[in-house]
C-alpha cells in the first residue's frame, strides 16, 4: 500500500550569526495509517521535522528534501495557497500547550466552527452540530456548556481536548502531535491520549507523535524513530525497544529511573561525538 | 530523636482557596523524603510554606524541634534550609554571572574565604573554573541546575528542599542531576525533601514518600512499598499505573 | 580547562568574546562589548551617538570654537545681519554672533539634560522599585503620589514650580526634574512586578537577603535598561520643556544663550530676520533627534530578551 506520507532526505536549515545551522539533517520516513513516534531530546530536530511537514517552518529557515509526498501531493512544489488548504483539512497539528494555541478572545465553539467553515461550505446550524458532536467525541461531558466557554475558563486537559476537537473536525488524514500532553498532569495525560488513540484508530488516520518521553511514545505508538542532533539514529517497532541497537537509544532508556530497580547511581548517557556525524 | 522537619496540621490559603489543608509530615535527620502529586495537589505549596514563601494560615512547622514563627524567617534558618527550584531558566538572575550568584549568599551570611568556597562549590557540582564568570544564558539547562544546586549548598545547609529539580530537563541530563544530588547528600549527610510529579524519580531518590491530592496527604509510604505494590489508596494506584506509560484498552482481543 | 592560560596570546576581540572569561572584569567587559556590537548593527543609532558626541565636544571646546563672544555684540554696526562669511548664522538684535551663542548654548542644554537625568531617573527608579517590590499600602501611597504628579501636564506643573521658586536656569532644571520622575517610577514599578515573583528573586529571599538588598542589588539592575532607554528618549522632551520655559521667560534669563530663550527673542523678527530663531531651533531639532536615535538603538541593544542570542 502506498504510504500516506513519504519523505526522503529532509533538511531544515536556519541562518545563524556564524554560518547556517542545520536543525534537521537528512530525515527520511514513511508513514502509513499508523502511529509513528519521533523521540529525541531538546535540539534533536524532532519538532522542526513536524513543522516542516506542516509547512510551518519559520520564514528565515529553508526546507529542502529529495522527496516530500503527502498522498499524491508534492509538498515541495505545492504553493503557499495549496498548503494552506491542506492544513486543517487533510493534515492537522496539535501543539504542546493549549493555552498558547487557542485564541483567547474567541469561544471554543466558535473556533471549531471557524476551522470547519474555512475548509467546507457548511451552514451555521450544521457547523454547530458537527462542532458539538466533535466535542462529544473528545469526551467532554457537557459539550453545550464548553462550546460557549473561552479557553481560559477551562482546565489544561479540557483545553487540549478542545484543541484535538478543533484539529480533527475537518477530518484530516494525517495528524501531527507535537508533545500534545507534556503540559498535562500524568493522569490527565493518559485520558487525553486514550481519546486521541481511539479517534485515530476509528478514523483511520496517520499519526506522527513527537515527544521527548520515550516511555510514553513506546507504549503509545506502533513504531518509534529516535532522533539525535538532527538525524534519525534508530527506527524500530515499539515492542522491540528493549532490544535497541544504537548506544544512544540504549543510554536514553537506561538513564530513566524505574520503580523497583535499585540502580545507584543511574547510568548516564555518554555522548559520543560520532553520533552527531 | 527529633525530626529534622516536622510539619503539623499545616494549612495554607490563597485568597480563600485552601491550597493546603491539615497536612502533617515528619522527615527524620538525614532522610530523603518525597512529595508526589499532580498540579494543584499542594506539593509545591508545602515546600514553599516551609521556606517561608507561602502564607501559613494554620498549624506549625518545626526544624530540629524548634518551632518556626509564622511569617518572617531569620537568617539562621536560611543557613539551615535551602531550596532548588524547578525551572533552571528562571531561578538564576539573568544579569549576574555564576560567580555573583554564588558570592551573594556568602556575602549575606558573612562567610570568609569566599574565593575558595566558590571554586570548591563549582567543583562539587561538576562545573570547572571555566564556568565561574559566565552568564546564565551561556549555560545549558543541566549546567544551570548544577549552578542552582551549588548556590543552595554553598551556605552549608543541612536541609535541602528540591522543587521538581529535573522536570524541565532532558532524560539523560535528569540522570546526571539526580546522581549529583544523591552524591552530595551522601557526602554532606543532607536531609532532602523532594517534590516531583514523577513517581519513578521519587522512588529512585527517596526513602519515604507522601502522595498528595487536593491539598491533602493521601498516603505516606516507604519507597520499597511501590515496588512491592503495597499501597492502599486508589489515587496511588492510579499514579502508579500512569507512571508505566500508556495502556491501550483492547476491545477486540482478550486483554493480555 | 586548565589550558586557557597557556594558550597563545589572544587578540582583544577573542579575549572579549570568550565563552569562559577568567575574571569578573573580563566577564563584564565581554558583556559590554557584545552590547556594543548589537548597538553598532543599528546605523541610525550610531548617527545619534555621533550627534551627541559632537554636542559634548562643542560644549567642552566652546571657548575655542566660538568665533565671537556670546554676550557682547556690536550694537552699532552688527544688528540683525543675515548669515554671511563673517557671521555664519547671522547676528541677533543685540548684534551678537548667533553661531557663538548656539555653541555656548550647548553647555546650558547639556547642563539641563544631565542634571534632570541625575535627579529624576534615580528618584523614579527608587520609588518605582520599592513600590513594586513592597506592595500593599506602601505601593498604594507611593503610586497615588505619582498619580497626582502625572495628572498635571508637565509644562504647566513646571511653570507652577518655577513661579514658586523664581525664574532662572537652576530652578527650571529643578522644576523639570520634579515633574519628570513619575513616568520613570511607573516603568520601574511595572518592571519590578514582572520580576518580583521570579524564582531568582525567591532564591535571593531564601538566602536571607533583606528587602533593601534585594531591591538595590537584584531588582534595580533589571530595571536599568528600560529606564536608560526611556530617559534617553525623554531627553528630547526635556530639552523642549527647558526651551519652552526659556521661551516663556521663566527659564534661563538674558543674556544667557539658552536655545529656547534665543528663539523667544527671535520671535519678534521671525518674518524678516528668520535666522535669529532658525539657528537655535535647528540646534534643538538636531540634538533632540540625536537623543531619539540613540534611545532607539539602546532599546534594541539593551533589551534583555535579546540576551543569549
From TrEMBL, chain A:
Q: Which Pfam families match?
A: ABC_tran
Compartmental location: Cell inner membrane
| Keyword Transport applies | yes
Q: Which domain of life is it from?
A: Bacteria
Q: Which InterPro entries match?
A: AAA+_ATPase (IPR003593), ABC_Ni/Peptide_Import (IPR050388), ABC_transporter-like_ATP-bd (IPR003439), P-loop_NTPase (IPR027417)
Q: Does the keyword tRNA processing apply?
A: no
Q: What is this protein called?
A: Peptide/nickel transport system ATP-binding protein
Q: Which family does it belong to?
A: Belongs to the ABC transporter superfamily.
Q: Which organism is it from?
A: Mycoplana dimorpha
* GO BP, sorted A to Z: transmembrane transport
Q: Which UniProt keywords apply?
A: ATP-binding, Cell membrane, Membrane, Nucleotide-binding, Transport
Show where the ABC transporter domain sits. 5-254
TrEMBL record, chain B:
Q: Which UniProt keywords apply?
A: ATP-binding, Nucleotide-binding, Transport
Q: Name one GO biological process term.
A: transmembrane transport
PROSITE patterns per the UniProt record, alphabetical = ABC_TRANSPORTER_1, ABC_TRANSPORTER_2
Matching CDD domains: ABC_NikE_OppD_transporters
Q: Which domain of life is it from?
A: Bacteria
- Domain (ABC transporter): residue spans on this chain: 5-239
Q: Name one GO molecular function term.
A: ATP hydrolysis activity
Quote the InterPro entries the UniProt record gives: AAA+_ATPase, ABC_transp_ATP-bind, ABC_transporter-like_ATP-bd, ABC_transporter-like_CS, P-loop_NTPase
Q: Which Pfam families match?
A: ABC_tran
Family per record: Belongs to the ABC transporter superfamily.
Name of protein:
Peptide/nickel transport system ATP-binding protein
Source species: Mycoplana dimorpha
UniProtKB/TrEMBL annotation, chain C:
Q: How does it sit in the membrane?
A: Multi-pass membrane protein
Q: Mark the transmembrane ranges.
A: 44-66, 108-134, 155-178, 228-253, 273-295
- Name the major location: membrane
Q: Name the SUPFAM superfamilies on file.
A: MetI-like
Q: Per the record, a Pfam family?
A: OppC_N
Q: Which InterPro entries did the record assign?
A: ABC_transport_permease, BP-dependent_transpt_permease, MetI-like, MetI-like_sf, OppC_N
Gene Ontology biological process terms from the UniProt entry: protein transport
What Gene Ontology cellular-component terms does the record carry? plasma membrane
Compartments where found: Cell membrane
Q: Which segments constitute the ABC transmembrane type-1 domain?
A: 106-295
**Can you provide one Gene Ontology molecular function annotated for this UniProt record?**
dipeptide transmembrane transporter activity
Keyword vocabulary terms for this entry: Cell membrane, Membrane, Peptide transport, Protein transport, Transmembrane, Transmembrane helix, Transport
Query: Family, per the entry?
Result: Belongs to the binding-protein-dependent transport system permease family. OppBC subfamily.
Name of this chain's protein: Peptide/nickel transport system permease protein
| Upper taxonomic lineage | Bacteria, Pseudomonadati, Pseudomonadota, Alphaproteobacteria, Hyphomicrobiales
Amino acid at each position: 500500500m502506498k504510504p500516506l506520507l513519504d519523505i526522503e532526505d529532509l533538511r531544515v536549515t536556519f541562518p545563524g550569526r556564524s554560518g547556517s545551522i542545520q536543525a534537521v539533517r537528512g530525515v527520511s520516513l514513511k508513514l502509513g495509517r499508523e502511529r509513528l513516534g519521533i523521540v529525541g531530546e531538546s535540539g534533536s530536530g524532532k519538532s522542526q521535522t513536524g513543522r516542516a511537514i506542516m509547512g510551518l517552518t519559520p520564514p528565515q529557515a529553508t526546507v529542502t528534501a529529495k522527496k516530500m509526498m503527502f498522498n499524491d501531493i508534492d509538498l515541495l512544489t505545492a504553493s503557499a495557497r495549496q498548503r494552506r488548504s491542506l492544513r486543517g483539512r487533510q493534515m492537522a497539528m496539535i501543539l504542546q500547550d493549549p493555552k498558547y494555541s487557542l485564541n483567547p478572545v474567541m469561544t471554543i465553539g466558535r473556533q471549531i466552527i471557524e476551522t470547519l467553515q474555512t475548509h467546507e461550505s457548511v451552514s451555521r446550524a450544521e457547523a454547530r452540530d458537527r462542532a458539538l458532536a466533535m466535542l462529544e467525541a473528545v469526551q467532554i461531558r457537557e459539550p453545550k456548556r464548553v462550546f460557549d466557554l473561552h479557553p481560559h475558563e477551562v482546565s489544561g486537559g479540557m483545553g487540549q481536548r478542545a484543541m484535538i476537537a478543533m484539529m480533527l473536525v475537518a477530518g484530516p488524514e494525517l495528524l501531527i502531535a507535537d508533545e500534545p500532553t507534556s503540559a498535562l498532569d500524568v493522569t490527565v495525560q493518559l485520558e487525553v491520549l486514550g481519546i486521541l488513540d481511539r479517534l485515530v484508530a476509528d478514523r483511520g488516520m496517520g499519526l506522527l507523535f513527537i515527544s521527548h518521553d520515550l516511555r510514553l511514545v513506546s507504549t503509545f505508538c506502533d513504531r518509534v524513530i529516535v532522533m539525535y542532533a538532527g538525524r534519525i539514529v534508530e527506527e524500530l517497532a515499539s515492542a522491540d525497544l528493549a532490544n535497541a541497537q544504537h548506544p544512544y537509544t540504549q543510554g536514553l532508556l537506561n538513564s530513566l529511573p524505574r520503580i523497583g530497580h535499585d540502580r545507584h547511581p543511574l547510568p548516564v548517557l555518554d555522548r559520543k561525538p560520532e553520533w552527531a556525524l | 530523636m527529633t525530626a529534622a522537619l516536622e510539619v503539623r496540621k499545616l494549612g495554607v490559603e490563597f485568597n480563600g482557596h485552601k491550597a493546603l489543608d491539615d497536612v502533617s509530615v515528619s522527615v527524620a535527620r538525614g532522610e530523603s523524603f518525597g512529595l508526589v502529586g499532580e498540579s494543584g495537589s499542594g506539593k509545591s505549596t508545602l515546600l514553599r510554606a516551609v521556606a517561608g514563601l507561602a502564607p501559613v494560615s494554620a498549624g506549625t512547622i518545626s526544624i530540629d524541634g524548634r518551632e518556626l514563627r509564622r511569617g518572617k524567617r531569620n537568617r539562621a534558618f536560611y543557613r539551615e534550609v535551602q531550596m532548588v527550584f524547578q525551572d533552571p531558566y528562571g531561578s538564576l538572575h539573568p544579569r549576574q554571572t555564576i560567580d555573583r550568584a554564588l558570592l551573594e549568599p556568602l556575602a549575606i551570611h558573612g562567610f570568609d574565604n569566599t574565593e575558595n568556597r566558590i571554586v570548591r562549590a563549582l567543583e562539587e557540582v561538576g562545573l570547572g573554573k571555566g564556568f565561574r564568570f559566565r552568564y546564565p544564558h551561556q549555560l545549558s539547562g543541566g549546567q544551570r541546575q548544577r549552578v542552582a544546586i551549588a548556590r543552595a549548598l554553598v551556605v552549608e545547609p543541612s536541609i535541602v528542599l528540591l522543587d521538581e529539580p529535573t522536570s524541565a530537563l532532558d532524560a539523560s541530563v535528569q540522570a546526571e542531576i539526580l546522581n549529583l544530588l544523591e552524591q552530595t547528600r551522601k557526602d554532606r549527610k543532607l536531609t532532602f525533601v523532594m517534590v516531583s510529579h514523577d513517581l519513578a524519580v521519587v522512588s529512585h531518590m527517596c526513602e519515604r514518600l507522601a502522595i498528595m491530592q487536593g491539598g491533602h496527604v493521601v498516603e505516606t509510604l516507604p519507597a520499597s512499598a511501590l515496588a512491592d505494590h503495597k499501597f492502599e489508596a486508589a489515587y496511588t494506584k492510579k499514579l502508579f499505573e500512569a507512571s508505566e506509560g500508556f495502556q491501550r484498552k483492547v476491545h477486540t482481543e482478550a486483554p493480555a | 580547562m586548565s589550558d586557557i592560560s597557556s594558550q597563545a596570546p589572544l587578540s582583544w576581540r577573542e579575549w572579549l568574546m570568550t565563552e569562559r572569561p577568567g575574571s569578573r572584569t573580563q566577564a563584564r567587559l565581554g558583556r559590554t562589548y557584545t552590547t556594543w556590537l548589537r548597538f553598532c548593527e543599528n546605523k541610525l543609532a550610531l548617527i545619534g551617538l555621533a550627534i551627541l558626541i559632537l554636542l559634548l565636544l562643542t560644549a567642552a571646546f566652546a571657548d575655542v570654537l566660538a568665533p565671537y563672544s556670546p554676550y557682547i555684540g556690536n550694537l552699532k554696526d552688527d544688528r540683525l545681519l543675515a548669515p554671511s562669511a563673517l557671521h555664519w548664522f547671522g547676528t541677533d538684535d543685540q548684534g551678537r554672533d548667533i553661531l557663538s551663542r548656539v555653541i555656548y548654548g550647548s553647555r546650558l542644554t547639556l547642563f539641563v539634560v544631565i542634571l534632570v537625568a541625575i535627579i529624576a531617573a534615580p528618584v523614579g527608579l527608587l520609588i518605582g522599585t520599592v513600590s513594586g517590590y513592597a506592595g500593599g499600602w506602601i505601593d498604594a501611597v507611593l503610586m497615588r503620589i505619582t498619580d497626582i504628579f502625572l495628572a498635571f501636564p508637565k509644562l504647566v506643573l513646571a511653570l507652577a514650580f518655577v513661579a514658586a521658586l523664581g525664574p532662572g536656569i537652576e530652578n527650571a532644571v529643578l522644576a523639570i526634574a520634579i515633574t519628570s520622575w513619575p513616568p520613570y517610577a511607573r516603568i520601574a514599578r511595572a518592571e519590578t512586578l514582572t520580576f518580583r515573583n521570579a524564582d531568582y528573586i525567591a532564591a535571593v529571599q531564601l538566602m536571607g537577603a533583606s528587602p533593601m538588598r534585594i531591591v538595590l542589588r537584584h531588582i534595580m539592575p533589571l530595571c536599568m535598561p528600560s529606564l536608560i532607554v526611556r530617559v534617553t528618549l525623554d531627553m528630547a522632551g526635556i530639552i523642549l520643556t527647558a526651551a519652552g520655559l526659556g521661551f516663556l521667560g521663566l527659564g534661563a534669563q538674558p543674556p544667557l544663550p539658552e536655545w529656547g530663550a534665543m528663539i523667544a527673542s527671535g520671535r519678534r523678527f521671525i518674518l524678516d530676520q528668520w535666522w535669529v530663531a532658525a539657528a537655535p531651533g535647528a540646534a534643538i531639532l538636531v540634538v533632540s533627534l540625536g537623543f531619539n536615535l540613540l534611545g532607539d538603538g539602546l532599546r534594541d541593544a539593551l533589551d534583555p530578551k535579546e540576551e543569549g542570542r
